[in-house]
Design goal:
With 453 residues, the protein is an alpha/beta fold. It contains 12 helices and 20 strands. It folds into 2 domains: 336 residues, Rossmann fold (3-Layer(aba) Sandwich); 100 residues, ANL, C-terminal domain (GMP Synthetase, Chain A, domain 3, 2-Layer Sandwich). 43% of the residues are buried.
Amino acid sequence: MIKNNHGDRQFWDETLETMPREQIREIQFTKLKKQVKYNYDNSIFYQRKFDAAGLKPGDIKTWDDFKKIPYMDKNEHRAAQDESLERFGHPYGMLACAPRDKIVRLSATSGTTGTPTLYMLTKNDIKVLNNLHARKYWRIGLRPGDTVIVAFALSMFAGGVPCVDALWDYGMCVAPVGAEARTRRLLEFAALTKPTVLFCTPSMVEHLGEQCEVILGKPASTLGIKYLLCGGEPGAGMPEFKQRVEKMFGAQMYDMLGSVQTLHAISCGNSTYRGMHFLSEDYCILELLDPETGQVLEFTDGVTGEYVFTYLDWEGTPFLRYRMGDIMQVHTGQCECGWPGMRLKLIGRTDDMLIVKGINIYPSAIKNILESFSPRVTGAFRIILDRPGHQVNPPLRLKVEHAPGLEKQQITDLKNEIEQYMSETARVRPEITFIPPFTLERSEHKTRYIEVE
């Protein structure tokens, strides 16, 4: 367990977390050269990838040289896993850089967009991860001895057991109930253990807040939870959603990023959401790309693109220039909270992007707009498509739950208001069908907002 010798200072690792970015970049590049050589020397996948690009580790001498390293994506990741199984009879052969006897943990993505992709970790990797998690927890005021209910899915999910381990290592008292336990058991354990922290997806925290009075006979605000730590999907960064759920629980909501990857960030908790503070640059190189051209974008305030990350100081599966398929916005200006560094906002997945008459729109943007009409809507909705794919035959059809107690004319007026507002702000005019409250299924994992008829 990490020893608490940090006193009352604001940062877990004050030297690195407050270091000027120019110095951080020097540290990054020193680590990068070692990481590139390590990958090439120990991974068939990276040997093949570098050789195909006509590169050797010694060729990476500048940041411009770094951009010559080919990207990797989940399709390549899955193909490497399949080849490993076919050639070696196990998943380690192509991607893993550490020998099998040094791999002590396997984690995986949720697999919502295909076969789960594996992450392989050594004891060194777990130590790095736990340190990065500790930076997040310390920064927002969590301290050893706090009790936390973990309501992320635990079974192989990257945000499950790895986060439980990091919380334990930090010194928190953990109740790893898990999303698999379902709503009633989660709420009963929250009432029994009196946690100060709830750790889960935004859709789960909303669902638990809605069901608390139904199941326990009392509002969520009576549970005594003070911190809502959310990740895995958009929501915690949406102002109206954040305010509504915080009021439900009488707690502060934090948006966070990072589980088994070295890209870690957390929001500062200001009443106005200002993004997640990036606090792991010494272990992660972050890039933004134009998703169509693949061109690297300069970090300027408000720039938006597909994010790419490179692991540093990693042994198991240290990915180089990995494209996750997520769209991110970066803010470089100083946050009012006084914390240093860039701030990150997740916009949505490239897979979920919809194109309506040439206009790009993401489910997260639609959710954000609908939340602004609370309390006249519950916030639950679905996008109804007549075929899979990005192109939408107009109009964009939405099923939206109205709030309890609305009369027919109020629903008609609300429909007209939302359709007009979306037309003006998102430049997409939807066709909304209102349905009664709590008609749509509440997810205990990640919410799938798109349905194909």
